[in-house]
Design goal:
Number of strands: 21
CATH superfamily of the largest domain: DNA methylase specificity domains
Helix content: 25-40%
Radius of gyration: 25 Å
Distance between the termini: 30 Å
Structural class: alpha+beta
CATH architecture of the largest domain: Alpha-Beta Complex
CATH topology of the largest domain: Adenine-n6-DNA-methyltransferase TaqI, Chain A, domain 2
Strand order of the largest sheet: 4-10-7-8
Number of helices: 13
Shape: globular
Largest sheet: 4 strands, antiparallel
Length: 500
């Protein structure tokens, strides 16, 4: 793990200072070369550095009833996302809870997990008209007025902070508790001569945060388009016949569930008809093998390299259609990559996630666990068809249909031979154009600059590209700050030009 130094020897005074705790992990030395490091506590309010949440108890949890309160738990923050995942919250019975106003979240708060998934942090921002109560396993930081919260969040998401907190937290318990140890973690800053980096990192972080938020809004809008088209269609409920089972050659219950049968019936009765994948001009094939015998010697890294390919594992496609992890693959042999109008489909594990390649600006590749939906004749393709297929499959995933259609355990699989059962509705030109604009607007943003209104003009594909660019540049700059090797601004601009 980077940023971690293993000590050659341990002094008795060290053991005594740690209250005779002899767990080896508590004596890892976590450090970086940056000479300018400050404790997190010095960036926070002296009297009240953080506010810890509360635990209302399971008796206050509501399942099928809404209220004015939502509960933000540890699972609402993770290492992959930079904003609090509000879709994972649930409602609370306001009569059964006890809290103070400081434990309610407001826009702009930074929250950090101190229990279980310790060190995970996120930015809170919402337009929902609810009160959000923070869990007792988390804290929200009370920053001093002159502290750049976006720079701080970027450093909290970095491995250095997580490594420090991990080394300070005792092991051995079922759920780990770090308490207030995060206050002792150090945050690196650039030298005064390189203070311009702070503003650039702020803009990169803002672009990531607001792009993630906008991706969620687009996803809601895409789902509503399909809902509006299909929910108005009424179909008769039918029972499963033996002939149906003989025809489909499947006996799994999910395939014959009420939800699946009614959905297929709606597509079958769609007013303007439907088409199979082949009739839309597409076919499926397996992703490439990344084994050594096929690629030769290879390397995977989070750091951008202009000669490497951007590797997408199907499992790393988020619920909102963007790529969670940025991994670059370099290999001695030739790396096969996806082209414009190709669609990546997660065929194993979390079945149904999709991502459409809308241009050839980045060299995307994947592995054998993904299915590639590719044009039969690449000379007569239409990007709107690719986006319709991509978004419709993701809609089926959101509605839980892909989970019922997949077979096998551990998330199941959706193999190539099952694709003939899928039909796609013949949407009108207006709808396919709207889906295209939501997914691929062809609007571009410079990663070093931030303007919230510009981000609202991006489609899912551009959001993913912006997030990938910003994450890679952020990683590069933070690593240079930690190693006390910050380059001039033109250097990073040149890296960006090679990427873009």
């Amino acid at each position: 793990m980077e940023d971690v130094l293993i000590p050659v020897e341990i002094k008795m005074s060290d053991i005594i200072s740690k209250k005779y705790n002899i767990s080896p992990t508590n004596y890892k030395k976590v450090d970086v070369k940056a000479p300018n490091k400050v404790k997190l506590s010095s960036l926070l309010n002296t009297q009240n550095p953080f506010t810890r949440g509360t635990e209302p108890g399971s008796s206050a949890y509501l399942k099928d009833i809404e209220s004015n309160f939502k509960f933000v738990r540890n699972s609402c923050v993770d290492k992959l996302n930079n904003i609090v995942q509000l879709q994972r919250t649930f409602f609370l019975n306001e009569v059964a809870i006890s809290y103070n106003e400081e434990q309610l979240l407001k826009n702009g708060d930074i929250v950090v997990s101190t229990d279980a998934n310790i060190g995970d942090s996120a930015f809170f921002n919402t337009e929902e008209d609810y009160k959000f109560l923070l869990s007792s396993g988390m804290v929200k930081l009370n920053l001093k007025e002159n502290i750049n919260k976006f720079y701080l969040l970027a450093m909290l998401k970095d491995s250095y902070f997580n490594s420090q907190l991990d080394s300070m937290t005792p092991k051995g318990s079922t759920i780990r508790h770090s308490g207030s140890r995060l206050l002792e973690c150090k945050i690196p800053y650039p030298n005064e001569s390189n203070s311009w980096v702070i503003q650039v990192i702020e803009n990169l972080m803002k672009n990531i945060l607001y792009a993630e938020k906008h991706a969620q809004k687009i996803q809601v809008e895409i789902i509503s388009i399909f809902d509006k088209e299909l929910n108005t269609l009424s179909v008769e409920e039918t029972s499963t016949k033996v002939s149906d089972m003989l025809s489909a050659k499947r006996i799994d219950a999910g395939f014959y569930s009420k939800e699946v049968r009614q959905f297929f019936k709606k597509i079958e009765n769609y007013p303007s008809g439907n088409k199979s994948l082949t009739e839309l001009g597409y076919k499926t094939k397996r992703g490439p093998s990344l084994q050594k015998r096929d690629l030769g010697r290879s390397i995977k890294t989070e750091m951008f390299n202009p000669t490497y390919s951007l590797l997408i594992y199907p499992s790393d496609i988020s619920d909102f259609g963007i790529i969670d992890k940025t991994v670059f693959l370099g290999a001695a042999g030739k790396v096969w990559f996806l082209e414009k109008n190709d669609i990546l489909f997660s065929a194993e594990g979390n079945v149904g996630k999709t991502f459409a390649i809308c241009d050839n600006s980045l060299r995307f590749t994947t592995n054998i666990h993904g299915i590639i939906i590719t044009p039969i004749d690449k000379s007569v393709v239409d990007i709107k068809k690719a986006i319709l297929i991509c978004t419709f499959l993701n809609y089926m995933k959101k509605k839980g249909l892909m989970d019922k259609l997949s077979v096998g355990g551990q998330g199941g699989s959706f193999a190539v031979q099952y694709w003939d059962i899928l039909k796609f509705p013949n949407m009108s030109e207006d709808i396919t154009q709207k889906l295209k604009d939501l997914y691929f607007s062809e609007h571009q943003i410079h990663p070093f600059e931030f303007a919230e209104e510009e981000i609202t003009k991006l489609g899912v594909y551009e959001i993913n590209k912006l997030r990938t660019l910003c994450s890679s540049l952020l990683k590069m700059m933070i690593n240079d700050i930690k190693s006390d090797n910050v380059q001039d601004k033109d250097y990073y601009l040149n890296q960006l030009e090679q990427f873009a």
